[in-house]
Design goal:
267 residues; binds biotinyl-5-AMP
């Protein structure tokens, strides 16, 4: 495995590589902080502009969905984007899909075959390598802002993961057997994301994006268990709808459309 010290972040290096128009133009880099989503939210409240990027080498209180912990040591790509709805007409649900697609495309371009699992996970093989946490202020009628948080295990050795994650998590460097430049990966991901947000989504809608997303969704067509806050549903993951819901067909042929939950592959 390559040394993690060969892949350092510098603010100047990040600025130099970014080729986006708005995403990341306002940039806040921290060697370590609690959570990029939290800091991004604070900046949003203080009036930071659309596209502001908060990035950290390590997080001490990285967050997953539903208050879960996101393990974030140095070597990963942990960042959050502030997105303002007056600049971007996209629903928070769709935003998670746009981000997943950009992330999967960027990983693949870097020689790692990534797949996507509904609604917010990035997998390599059978192991999770990244996740997305989309938060928002306001509601459907008027969103104030969105915080798009992205975590990707880039240059992290297996023994650096806590025991309970070693079975189910991986990193790009483990899979590729060499380190990957986080700066370049970030720059490429943001470029793809910006193209989706300002180009494809407003002009062509969610349909074509979902179609591309599904190409990475290797869990579709397999047997899964979906745990929601109220129930567990087992069956075949048959589709993801235009609203971003997962359709699961159970053993009786009944199709359940699930808007929020966690997917586990059964075999
Ligand atoms: C997610 O939640 O997958 C969303 C993760 C988003 C993290 C980014 S990092 C930048 C930004 N700032 C933050 O504070 N957060 C965002 P969820 O689907 O709820 O998955 C969480 C579960 O994934 C945990 O309960 C663990 O089982 C597992 N997990 C935790 N850390 C992991 C890691 N580094 N790699 C793989 N799996 C992990």
């Amino acid at each position: 495995m390559g040394s993690l010290t060969t892949d350092t972040f510098t603010e100047a290096g990040l600025r130099e590589h970014l080729t986006t128009e708005k995403l990341g133009k306002s940039l806040y880099y921290f060697p370590s902080l609690d959570s990029t989503n939290i800091v991004c939210k604070e900046l949003a409240e203080k009036g930071a502009p659309h596209g502001a990027l908060v990035i950290a080498d390590a997080q001490t209180r990285g967050r997953g969905r539903l208050g879960r912990t996101w393990f974030s040591p140095a070597g990963g790509l942990w960042f959050s984007l502030l997105l303002r709805p007056n600049e971007m007409r996209v629903s928070p649900t769709h935003l998670t899909f746009l981000a997943g697609l950009a992330l999967a495309q960027a990983c693949t371009k870097n020689g790692v075959n990534a797949s996507l699992r509904w609604p917010n996970d990035l997998f390599v093989g059978a192991k999770k390598a990244g996740g997305i946490l989309t938060e928002s202020k306001g509601n459907g009628a008027s969103f104030d802002y969105f915080i798009l948080g992205i975590g990707l295990n880039v240059n992290i050795d297996l023994d650096a993961f806590p025991k309970e994650l070693q079975e189910e998590a991986t990193s790009l460097s483990i899979e590729k057997k060499e380190p990957i430049s986080r700066t370049q990966l970030l720059a490429y991901t943001l470029l793809l994301l910006e193209k989706l947000i300002v180009g494809i989504y407003p002009k062509q809608g969610f349909g074509p994006i979902l179609k591309l997303w599904k190409k990475y969704a290797s869990f579709l067509g397999t047997q899964v268990r979906v745990d929601t806050s109220t129930e567990s549903i087992e069956g075949e993951a048959v589709d993801v709808t235009l609203t971003g819901a997962l359709a699961v067909q159970d053993i009786d042929g009944i199709i359940h459309e699930i808007s929020c939950g966690d997917v586990r592959k059964l075999w």
